[in-house]
Amino acid sequence: xxxxxxxxxxxxxxxxxxxxxxxxxxxxxxxxxxxxxxxxxxxxxxxxxxxxxxxxxxxxxxxxxxxxxxxxxxxxxxxxxxxxxxxxxxxxxxxxxxxxxxxxxxxxxxxxxxxxxxxxxxxxxxxxxxxxxxxxxxxxxxxxxxxxxxxxxxxxxxxxxxxxxxxxxxxxxxxxxxxxxxxxxxxxxxxxxxxxxxxxxxxxxxxxxxxxxxxxxxxxxxxxxxxxxxxxxxxxxxxxxxxxxxxxxxxxxxxxxxxxxxxxxxxxxxxxxxxxxxxxxxxx
Amino acid sequence: xxxxxxxxxxxxxxxxxxxxxxxxxxxxxxxxxxxxxxxxxxxxxxxxxxxxxxxxxxxxxxxxxxxxxxxxxxxxxxxxxxxxxxxxxxxxxxxxxxxxxxxxxxxxxxxxxxxxxxxxxxxxxxxxxxxxxxxxxxxxxxxxxxxxxxxxxxxxxxxxxxxxxxxxxxxxxxxxxxxxxxxxxxxxxxxxxxxxxxxxxxxxxxxxxxxxxxxxxxxxxxxxxxxxxxxxxxxxxxxxxxxxxxxxxxxxxxxxxxxxxxxxxxxxxxxxxxxxxxxxxxxxxxxxxxxxxxxxxxxxxxxxxxxxxxxxxxxxxxxxxxxxxxxxxxxxxxxxxxxxxxxxxxxxxxxxxxxxxxxxxxxxxxxxxxxxxxxxxxxxxxxxxxxxxxxxxxxxxxxxxxxxxxxxxxxxxxxxxxxxxxxxxxxxxxxxxxxxxxxxxxxxxxxxxxxxxxxxxxxxxxxxxxxxxxxxxxxxxxxxxxxxxxxxxxxxxxxxxxxxxxxxxxxxxxxxxxxxxxxxxxxxxxxxxxxxxxxxxxxxxxxxxxxxxxxxxxxxxxxxxxxxxxxxxxxxxxxxxxxxxxxxxxxxxxxxxxxxxxxxxxxxxxxxxxxxxxxxxxxxxxxxxxxxxxxxxxxxxxxxxxxxxxxxxxxxxxxxxxxxxxxxxxxxxxxxxxxxxxxxxxxxxxxxxxxxxxxxxxxxxxxxxxxxxxxxxxxxxxxxxxxxxxxxxxxxxxxxxxxxxxxxxxxxxxxxxxxxxxxxxxxxxxxxxxxxxxxxxxxxxxxxxxxxxxxxxxxxxxxxxxxxxx
Lengths: 284, 806
Hints:
The complex is a heterodimer. Chain A is α+β, with helices and mostly antiparallel strands. Chain A has one domain (61-273): Nucleotidyltransferase, domain 5. Chain A has eight helices and nine strands. Chain B is α/β, with parallel strands linked by helices.
């Protein structure tokens, strides 16, 4: 603990501030055990004590595609590819071909907003060769953020239509800030963007108890999440890893993000299948 | 038909008599008042009128702007406006410190609008209040309309609706805001303002003299953050600052922006003759130093002036006093409800439409008397006035001049009268006419590197942009501070960078008006209210917010009913009592390290770091005016500790033994001298009285002295029980210390000016009108202490004589 830190702590106490406790260091595992478990060894790396499900491997999800950047790729048969649809439900006067769609969702270090919040994972899904293709980017160092942003930008085309849930208010401005901080042009600023929260609200506000994604999943898609990591715990999972903790919680973050993407696809499908029916009468 | 005669008004008219005969201007009224009330006037002087000095509109000004100016009747500039144009054109940072109503705003409007027209350059204006910001925008819009300049100006503050914000960020050429918004809303979201920052050419900061002490130290750090964000967008904007007249405008401006600044202090605006009277209410009890109320005097002066046909503005210190004085004047002048009102009140808390209506009436000359709080001090255009009466000293010489500046016509002399209240500061100022003449006595000071303030802003800055290892913040290497924040867990260090990783928004936790965030909020519970009416620094809470305390907020008394120490809340209700409360605090200081020292007369003066331990043992109830002690109450709060900076004076045992018969006398003298020094020091550094405190004790912390119920010194060796054993050498020490952990930079300038201070304190004591001592000089004494030889006045003078430079 530095002399300055001691001095400041004293002054803050005198000013009536109850100082936050520094994050508690965790006991280190013996080297041989760590090696056996395949735990990363880092300078001053405290070992994980965080409880995690035994079936999650303590390794990073996906494969490394650049220093500090993981890519997780998978494809699912469900939900199926939607037909070309009229996007009037999202107040876009356009018929949209499914191959233009890019569904996305970010996992961030918090909800505080402003320039201090960042995305550590960007998940995107599109219908590719008849399947829903999911690609998730995960940074494991802060230095890899620029590479993640560039990689995400490479998935976008001028005619891409973004699909999100509350992304117009949250994910898109956040990414815009991150591109700006890395002194890059923002690749999503000029793209069409369907934020499904708005048509869902227009249709079911006052019908369901709220319009959160989990509610929509349950009510509309009859999806029940299995062993889901609550979204609010995602920042801690990533920070824990960054500080030398276990990678296992990141596996769960990736699954959570992947589920979000599939739910996005499911909701979109409902709207795309019945663009006009969804606008007025019975939900199912 | 005449209204029924109002008996009060009739009596007032009789009292005023010939005094109230019509006059042609402030000069005649000044002479008349001076003749009639010579004994109340402690200072009287005339600032001669001056012809304007002009310069043609600059040739390099955009023609559209010149056209706009001409169409608003401006065919030439004042010399200082032209000077400001040249200096800004040469790329200099500028501070303009010319008097009120000298056309300061044009000094920054012209370069800003020119740059907007020519280069689509943007400007950020910072004003301390929303009202000023709105007035400024209105003025910009008028000029813009007059010339069809197409320059867009908007206010951006807490009232700006969310849907307008985006448009302002993108399309505002001139964004008018305040330091708090910059700190909490603009900088932490700077990426949304990217376009604005990329084109930011000018930053205009008005009223910089108000950015001093704790607030100023915060603002200096907000400006560091602003300049850091600007650097990210590749710009380094030029600063144009404005200040009231203070002693160190260039130095202060330069301390705020940490760059060299050119000062423009010589106004070219024409002024009419201005008469100033300093007015001390008559003594009604010389033993107690008791005077008639300022209110009665202000009322009388205003009445006389209005009767004599002069447009008059009275400034009162509180909203309540505005209402009281308005009522007194209305009783005299507005007794007939069928006639339009001649007297108006003006204060914050009225609806904007009411205020605008009052302003219109004043401009149209329909109102003869206005009673206002500081709300009218700045900006608001109310037309020409003849007389300004200040009911009480407004807290700084600079603010006094700003208020006096409200009166003045070119062709006719104006008058300003400062009526002193019984407050020690008022009494000190009113006896020193020289403070209002010649060089301004006040120096605005900041301490931008105050450790807790600095830590708060490095935290906010790290949220805005990552820090590189070794990066400077102001003149400091930020690295050690970043390491502290990394230990706290809000920053994460990766190779050479420190990045924000916490899920929090640090600016929301940093108030620009306090040191650190242990503040207490004061909650008004009167008649079921639940409103926050004030905030009190942690270190002042135990002195002012104990249960039973009478806590003054804007001169309105509240009683503290409940203090929630851990929740940092005090619950108060409005009250009407004839006493105030004074904490009995035991404060013990110990010198930790002297940074500097020098001989001072027969003793020595020092500047350095001290440790302060304080316990509030109870409180006294003291009746107003008579200062009788009418009761005690217990206080049971945790002890406080403080590491801070101080200036102190010491006398050797030998010098003391020669000058005093015994130790008691010497200690009485030290306490009394401390009271006087504290008053003069407060003025010298423009401090709030509570930011700077005084104490008497031993340099090694072995003992300290406090006044007992009789006003005599009592020696204690611990802040607990009363005891008296005293070993070792007797070296009394008089301290003035910064009342915040880590200090706020008040004691260094006090040390620099130590010789002046002692001299001024000595004059203060000697020139006081009381016989043996009073709150205005050496502190309250009891009527019984009438022995001239051992009066506190004599003893204080003896101490001050010993430490005054030879």
